[in-house]
Amino acid sequence: MRIAIRHLPLLILPLLLAACAPAPIYRPAPDAVAATPMQVAQAPERYAHGSVIWGGTVVAVRNLAGDSEIEVLAYPLDGSQRPRLDGTAAGRFIATLPGYVEPLDYPAGAPVTVSGTLDGSRVGKVGQADYVFPLVTVVQSHRWTADEMQKGRNNVHFGVGVGVGIR
User: Rounded to whole angstroms, how far apart are CA atoms 93 and 62?
Assistant: First the structure.
């Protein structure tokens, strides 16, 4: 089969466009829970052992004897599973990771996405208020860099200006 050189750009263009599009980092499981952390906190028994892909910003990291907990303020995810920090917060959850997690690798405010299994809930506090935190046993996690958060975002800006010249 011979391909004319003039058709080569038409064959390469879809590959280049696909390479530019950020791909989701996790595939949702067939039993994935579509509820937000806030909804799960209201009825944790209803969602027991379901799989989730949630993201948000790090609130705090706590290292315990055998594992670590990351408290996350949840936000909706975009098509690439990045937290949409310009959206409305969707509750809080605690992500449990095996072993030690370096708090400097997960600083407060850092965007994260985790996939894992719901493992009950825990009552805690947010300020002085009681709060129910869904617990997620993490299978995979990703802390997003500033560059990764910007990839694929529309960076087109328009502006009108007035110039003044001095002679």
Answer: 13
